[in-house]
Design brief:
- The protein is α/β, with parallel strands linked by helices.
- The strands form 3 sheets. The chain has a 6-stranded parallel beta sheet with strand order 11-10-9-12-13-14, with helices on both faces. Strands 3-2-1-5-4 form a 5-stranded antiparallel beta sheet, sandwiched between helices.
- Helix 1 runs antiparallel to helix 3, helix 4 packs across helix 8 and helix 5 packs across helix 6.
- The chain is elongated and about 70 Å long.
Length: 300
């Protein structure tokens, strides 16, 4: 969303193309967005392939006419039948110009500040930022969430964390890296992170909610133990800990002494990430990102 808003602000006039509904099997569902300028696609995607090509052509016509459009694209048409079976998407095309710059800037600021909000799109051409926590339901209105639900808190700023942050950011996760070593708590090591924080050794801290994710990959077993105990006392949606099964048994034994039990341990994904045989920091980062995507999608 941040890239989309920055692109629109830098390329006005442009057209915002949004998937507002879908039926059947489709590559991208409601909420998929794309920005199109006079020269073609600027960023984002509504699914690729022939349907996206037709959407880009329609968007350029909308840009020239200056009028919003809602239309349905059948993915069986134009050569898509072999790729997707029977699906269709309904697209909303909104032409945006200089008059829309303030609302786009307000939306970008909300994303930058990680404030909950919605970009409300109207069939008639209106666009506004709304701070209410629920999506409007009236006919002719579609709302895009400005910020993805939940933040990934990564305890530890080593090699795996360095590989993980850009992968998660590409999947539209907001990342915060927490370190107790000043030399590793450096924003320059994590340019894609929303924040990099230094916390006192032995005192991990983060404002964890039931929508947040925790990845623990610190520099030692004791630091892992402290961070895991902290996470288990929170309502975090996901807790993942990097390490061997032998290490897990050792840490769990110490957690039992601290009052944690089997029900707590069942909340923890360890070894962290999907079992794909990952070895290198980059491979491990992919396995962790895949696991978080599955949790976010509700398939794990």
């Amino acid at each position: 969303m941040k890239q989309l808003l920055e692109t629109l602000l830098g390329h006005l006039p442009a057209v915002l193309v949004t998937v507002v509904s879908s039926q059947g099997s489709v590559p991208r569902g409601p909420g998929a967005v794309m920005a199109v300028g006079a020269e073609g696609r600027l960023c984002g995607t509504v699914g690729g392939g022939a349907v996206e090509g037709r959407a880009i052509a329609a968007a350029r016509e909308v840009l020239a006419a200056g009028k919003p459009l809602r239309k349905t694209e059948n993915l069986r048409e134009g050569g898509d039948a072999g790729m997707v079976c029977g699906g269709s998407v309904e697209l909303l095309f909104l032409p945006l110009g200089e008059a829309h710059r303030p609302v786009l800037a307000a939306a970008l600021q909300a994303v930058t500040d990680n404030r909950p909000g919605w970009l409300v799109l109207e069939d008639a051409g209106g666009i506004a930022v709304q701070e209410t926590p629920a999506c409007p339901s009236r006919e002719g209105v579609f709302a895009l969430p400005l910020c993805p639900a939940g933040t990934v808190y990564i305890f530890g700023g080593g090699h795996v964390a360095q590989a993980l942050v850009p992968v998660l950011a590409a999947a539209e996760f907001r990342c915060v890296v927490l370190e107790d070593r000043p030399e590793f708590a450096d924003k320059a090591r994590f340019p894609a992170a929303a924040e990099v924080r230094l916390y006192p050794a032995g005192a991990p801290d983060a404002p964890l909610t039931g929508q947040d994710y925790v990845c623990i990959m610190t520099h030692g077993h004791h630091a892992d133990l402290e961070c895991e105990a902290f996470a288990l006392r929170s309502p975090a949606r996901y807790i993942g800990v990097m390490g061997s099964r032998r290490k897990t048994e050792s840490v769990n034994a110490r957690l039992r002494v601290m009052g944690f039990g089997e029900e707590d341990f069942r909340r923890v994904h360890t070894p962290i990430g999907l079992a794909i045989g990952a070895q290198t920091p980059g491979e491990i980062a992919v396995s962790i990102a895949a696991e978080l995507i599955a949790v976010r999608a509700g398939t794990l």
